[in-house]
Design brief:
The protein has 442 residues and is mainly alpha-helical. Helices cover 54% and strands 5% of the residues. The protein has a two-stranded antiparallel sheet. A two-stranded antiparallel sheet has the order 3-4. The longest helix is centred in the first third of the chain and has 28 residues, at 48-75.
Length: 442
C-alpha cells in the first residue's frame, strides 16, 4: 500500500474497505502481449533456420510476457485480482513451451481469479498449456496417460489421501480424447476416447473428463484442500484447523465462488490477530511488485527484473515443477536473503548489483536474451524511483516512527527503532527500512 492509498482507507470500516477492494478489482484487462494466432505445426515442418528464428522470437515473447505481467501487477488498481491470479498461477503450476499458451493460461487464471474455482479448473484443464504440460494430448484409448488425472487430484483439488491408484487409472480413461488443434483450440476427439464403464470415487458410469471434475467438486475435501492453501497464502503459514474448516464450509456452500470465501476471510476477527500480522514471507514477485508500486519505479532496462526474479528464486511462468513454488520460509536462504536486502537499496539509489549464480537449464533459454557469457554479471540497475511523489504523499505531521510502522508489517525491533530515531533524512531512513529483514514480511 502507498501513502495515498493509506490516507484514503485510514478511517474506513473493515467491511467497507473490503467492498472497495473488490470494487477496484471488478474489471478485467487481459494480457495481450503475445500473438495468439500462431500455427506451431508450421514451425515443426520448417527447416533448421526457420526453427531457430522461431525459437528466438519465442524467447523474446516469453521475456515480454514476464515483464508485461510484472508491469500490470505494479500499476493496476485491481490489486486483489492480480494477487489472487498469482496464487492461482502457482496452484495450477505449468511451464508452457509456447508464449501464446502461457499468456492464455495466465489470462484464464486472471479472469477467474475472483470468480468460480470450478469454472477455472475446467478451463485450465482444457487449455493447450496444461494439456501439453501434463501430456493429456497423448492420453488415448488403450494407452492412457495418467499425468493430468493424478495431478488434478493430488495438487489441484482433493489432495493426497483422498483417492486411490485405481481412481487415477479410471480418471485417466475418462480424460482420453481431450486435446487441442494446431491453433491451440481445445477439441474433444471421440475416436480416441475410452467409452467403457469407469468407477471413480465410488461412482460408476461412462464418464468423460467433465464428469470427473463434477465428482471431484462434489467432495468437500476439495473445498478443504484449497482453503488450507489459501490460508497459508493470505493468513499464516501454520494453518488453524478451525479457521480452515470454517473457510471450507463457506467455499463449499457457495458452490466454489471465490469472492464469498475471500470476503469471509478479510472480515474475520482472526484475520487481524497479532499472530497473523507481519508473519508471511513475501514471494520474490510480491517483493519486486511492492517496491515498484510504492516508489513508482521506472526501469530504463526492464530486463533487470528478470535477473531479480532469477536470483530470488521465482521466475514468472517457470515454476520448478507441477507442484509450484513451496513458498513460505522456503523463499529465504543465505543467498536469496542477501539479494533481498540489497536489491531495494540498489534500485532506490540507482546502484550496481552483482548477479551470481546459474539458472536451471530451462531458465537459461528464457534469460539468454539479456545475459552475457559470464556467470558473474555486474549490472547497472538504471532505475528511477519517483521520490517526489513518494515523499510528497507522506501525511503532514507523520513522525518517523509512524512512517516506519506504515512501511513495515512486523512490530519494530529496538535496534531498528534506535536507528530510526537517529536518522535525520527521511529518504535515507526509508531506504534503510526497505533494506531491513522486516521488509521481507507481509
Amino acid at each position: 500500500m502507498c501513502f495515498d492509498e493509506f490516507k484514503a482507507a485510514e478511517n474506513t470500516p473493515v467491511k467497507q474497505a473490503v467492498k472497495d477492494l473488490f470494487k477496484a478489482s471488478a474489471g478485467y484487462e487481459p494480457l495481450a502481449i503475445v500473438n495468439n494466432n500462431v500455427d506451431y505445426s508450421m514451425v515443426v515442418k520448417g527447416d533448421k533456420s526457420t526453427r531457430k528464428m522461431f525459437m528466438q522470437e519465442q524467447r523474446r515473447e516469453e521475456k515480454e510476457l514476464n515483464l508485461g505481467w510484472i508491469k500490470q501487477m505494479s500499476t493496476t488498481q485491481a490489486q486483489l485480482r492480480e494477487k489472487m491470479a498469482l496464487f492461482w498461477n502457482n496452484h495450477f503450476a505449468c511451464r508452457a513451451k509456447q508464449g501464446a499458451y502461457a499468456q492464455q493460461l495466465a489470462n484464464i487464471q486472471r479472469s477467474n481469479a475472483l470468480g468460480n474455482f470450478k469454472t477455472m479448473a475446467l478451463e485450465i484443464g482444457k487449455s493447450p498449456a496444461m494439456l501439453q504440460f501434463l501430456n493429456n494430448q497423448q492420453n488415448l484409448k488403450g494407452h492412457p496417460n495418467e499425468n493430468f488425472a493424478r495431478e488434478l487430484m493430488e495438487l489441484f483439488t482433493i489432495g493426497r489421501g483422498n483417492y486411490t491408484e485405481q481412481d487415477v487409472k479410471e480418471s485417466a480413461r475418462a480424460f482420453t480424447g481431450w486435446g487441442f488443434d494446431r491453433n491451440g483450440e481445445f477439441g474433444f476427439r471421440p475416436f480416441v476416447h475410452d467409452n467403457g464403464q469407469k468407477t471413480f470415487l465410488g461412482k460408476t458410469g461412462d464418464f468423460k473428463g467433465e464428469d470427473i471434475i463434477n465428482i471431484l467438486f462434489e467432495k468437500k475435501e476439495t473445498a478443504r484442500f484449497v482453503s488450507n492453501k489459501l490460508y497459508k497464502y493470505l493468513v499464516n503459514e501454520t494453518p488453524d484447523p478451525v479457521h480452515v474448516s470454517a473457510m471450507a464450509d463457506v467455499f463449499y456452500n457457495a458452490n466454489y465462488e471465490i469472492k464469498p470465501l475471500l470476503e469471509y476471510v478479510f472480515t474475520a476477527d482472526w484475520f487481524y490477530e497479532d499472530k497473523n500480522i507481519g508473519n508471511l514471507v513475501k514471494s520474490p514477485v510480491e517483493l519486486i511488485v511492492g517496491l515498484n508500486r510504492q516508489f513508482n519505479i521506472n526501469y530504463q532496462r526492464p530486463e533487470v527484473l528478470l535477473q531479480f526474479q532469477k536470483v530470488l528464486g521465482q521466475v514468472l511462468f517457470y515454476p520448478p515443477n507441477v507442484a509450484g513454488w513451496p513458498g513460505g520460509r522456503s523463499w529465504i536462504d543465505s543467498s536469496s536473503l542477501m539479494y533481498r536486502i540489497k536489491i531495494p537499496s540498489t534500485v532506490l539509489n540507482g546502484g550496481v548489483i552483482d548477479f551470481t549464480g546459474k539458472a536451471d537449464p530451462e531458465d537459461e533459454a528464457f534469460l539468454a536474451t539479456m545475459r552475457t557469457q559470464q556467470e558473474n554479471v555486474n549490472m547497472h540497475v538504471q532505475a528511477q524511483p519517483d521520490w517526489n511523489k513518494f515523499l510528497g504523499a507522506i501525511p503532514k505531521g507523520m513522525n518517523k516512527t509512524s512512517i516506519a510502522q506504515f512501511m513495515l508489517e512486523p512490530k519494530l525491533s529496538k535496534a531498528l527503532m534506535s536507528s530510526i530515531n537517529q536518522s535525520t533524512d527521511t529518504r535515507a531512513m526509508v531506504i534503510e527500512l526497505v533494506s531491513s529483514p522486516e521488509y521481507q514480511l507481509a
